[in-house]
Amino acid sequence: MDVYLPIANLAVDGLVIVALGVATGILSGVFGVGGGFLTTPLLIFYGIPPTVAAASAATQVTGASVSGVFAHSRKQGVDYQMGGVTVAGGMVGALLGAVIFNLLRSAGQIDVVINVLYVVMLGTIGGLMARESLESLRHPAGKTSQRPAKRRHHPMIASLPYRWRFYRSGLYISPLGPLILGVVVGILTMLMGVGGGFFMVPAMLYILGMSAKVVVGTSLFNILFITMLVTMVHAFTTRAVDIVLAGLLLVGSVTGAQLGTKIASFAKPEHLRLVLATIVLAIALRMAFNLGVRPDEVYTVVPL
Fold it and tell me: Which residues cross the membrane (predicted)?
């Protein structure tokens, strides 16, 4: 089923794009990540220009997050107070990211920067996830002599002033930590078209020390509002959002998020993390390979 994308200025198979959306939605429901960190590189592999892929993926992540937030909210798995703080920081980060995006685009370096960021981020995260998953499989719960580590926030977070109580997360920390985390995620979302969950979920667990039962839902809550803002900023500034592409992705992602929530309820977490780590590392290697290979078209013409 061929569909023409007006902003990307090419025809694609609509069913393939919908399938990518389903895969992204499943990741959203299982891991609490928006899935854009995989959608954007996969769209680039398919032939979508990186700027259009990043801007449109952020739009699609919004749809996946809506479905995921409702699913986790029914299980009391969202800390709305913590989510409000990270969203406030994310709004500032998104505006800063828009300035950086336009500067790099005017310099003609935005495509290279997007690809390099993905190689670094996916390679690092995939490696850490793979190591953690293999350790979990090698030492199953109940068969290891190590005592489980206590959940606590990073000493740097403990040193920040103006502490608040985040009751659902079980924390008494400064809101400045989540606020700064939100700013970083907002910048990444603007530049890479990601929801930022792949960065936010481990940061909430290991830096903020949040309870694991609310991390996924709170991450999706933050992703929902930040990707909405990023979509609007992209639409008015970079004009790189392809509404047809985003619509096809949304059709698949909303359905996939519900499937992912069901999968997460019975699948073993270490097996899921290992599968995701393998996919992430494979994509990072492919993007690194593409950066060092001479492209088929050395010169391109881009309308001003």
Answer: 15-45, 52-71, 83-105, 112-130, 179-207, 214-237, 243-260, 272-289
